[in-house]
Amino acid sequence: MKDILEVVIKNLVDNQEEVSIIEKSEAKSVCYEVKVAKEDMGKVIGKQGKMAKAIRSIMKAIATKEHKKVNVEFLD
Questions:
Q1: What is the pTM of this model?
Q2: What CATH topology corresponds to 2-11+20-75?
């Protein structure tokens, strides 16, 4: 799942080297903390948070197949 999230995020930003994804796993849930460059944060979140919602929806669909819950957080 982390690989798919990384591909999506890296295709949205200009500074691909600045992308950092930290995975925190528990029994039935996974939390991803995404950090990007400050100038790319707007691209990842999108207008009114629509891009962030879309990314979370994709990850939830993938997690459902693996019988897990997923949370994606975008950090400054």
A1: 0.90
A2: GMP Synthetase; Chain A, domain 3 (3.30.300)
